Amino acid sequence: MASAAQYDVPQTPRVISPSPTPSELSGKEGYFGPVTRSAARKNRRAPTPPPIDEDSSGSDPEKRARARSRSPILESRRRRMSGLTALKKAGPGRKGDLTLQNGVVNGHLSPAAANKNYWREMSRSPSPLGLIPIHQKWRSFIHRHEIPRKILHVSIGFLTIFLYCIGQRSDQIHPVMLALLIPIAATDVIRHRYWQVNRFYIRCLGALMRESEVDGYNGVISYLLGAWIVLRFAPKDIGVVSILLLSWCDTAASTFGRLWGHRTWRVRKGKSLAGSIAACLTGIITAGFFWGWLAPFMSETQDQSVFAFQGVLALPPQARDSLGLSLTQASVTGYLALGAMSVWSGIVASTSEAIDLFGWDDNLTIPVLCSVGLWGFLKVFG
């Protein structure tokens, strides 16, 4: 019994949690397992963690359970986000904070913080592909080559020729175009104001749209506005040819620029020499087709006295007087005048397609610049 009393039973050692608090680390009592020299060196290199407030009575469990965001938590500014629904304010909300369904801001950065509009929620892809659902399904047919959009673009030229052949006057067409322009533009304003309308609009007309038109204005508005301007203010033949150049030259430039643009020099950002050459050649053919065949063929049913181009080109009076030439000597007619007018039309079409005018849509700038270039040329040499 004496020997048993001499050796006391030791107390149970204290068990330390895997993540000790600073007070536990600073304590000298307690058992710690053996540490190798490599682990000891790592512990000496590791920075000292910041002190932890052990009194959690006044702390927010949401803040303790989740990592803090780079954005400060502002309780007075919140935004609610759920699934694929619109981002609606539940009060004065902060753009970058993620608000849970129970109304608690947890401090995490919301996925919608980098998205300007709701439609970004349809696709997390950083590339433009994916903003319009049908572009994903028909990636090559619709997204890459834009076949439906090009068909619509080209068909406007054939519609213009049809209206010209049945004897429609410019003053009969441009009021109709203005009547179409107003509701289409109003629809675009409404769809940008209400995301439900925009989503329905994209599902119906997504095959004819580009990704930039999801949160921008539809190119049809610029197309109608440009066509209305040239038919309203330019002579009939200038207006018709300007619309044909827009319809066919722009499509040719886009098609051949995508095919062979990487093999030629770049005219400017997004425009290649291959596309400009295609637009020039198409413009030459288009002008020769209209003034060389269609207008003479329809001369019996069309009043061509209002045409700006009457088949004759001449030097201006000042140039004739300085050179000592008569009007007959300084004039060209027939195929020579038609060829000069066609070549100038191709140059004007190619230039207007390549120019970036204040960032405006080329569906607006191409017909306007073409009509100005053609009408100005005929004012000088016509």
Question: What does this protein structure show overall?
Answer:
The protein has helices at 2-6, 22-26, 37-45, 61-65, 133-137, 139-144, 147-165, 170-193, 195-205, 219-233, 236-260, 273-297, 317-323, 334-354, 362-381, and strands at residues 97-99, 105-109, 266-268, 271-272, 312-314, 331-333. It is mainly alpha-helical and 382 residues long. The protein has a two-stranded antiparallel ribbon. Strands 3-4 form a two-stranded antiparallel ribbon. Helix 8 (170-193) runs antiparallel to helix 10, helix 10 runs antiparallel to helix 11 and helix 14 packs antiparallel against helix 15 (362-381). The chain is elongated and about 140 Å long. The chain starts with a helix and ends with a helix. Residues 54-96 and 112-127 have low confidence and may be disordered.
Mean pLDDT score: 77
What characteristic shape results from the CA principal axes? Answer: elongated
Main sheet attributes: strand count, strand direction, barrel closure: 2 strands, antiparallel
Walk across the major sheet and give the strand order. 1-2
GO molecular function: ATP-dependent diacylglycerol kinase activity; nucleotidyltransferase activity
Transmembrane segments: 151-170, 176-195, 216-234, 240-261, 273-294
Protein name: Phosphatidate cytidylyltransferase
Keywords: Membrane, Nucleotidyltransferase, Transferase, Transmembrane, Transmembrane helix
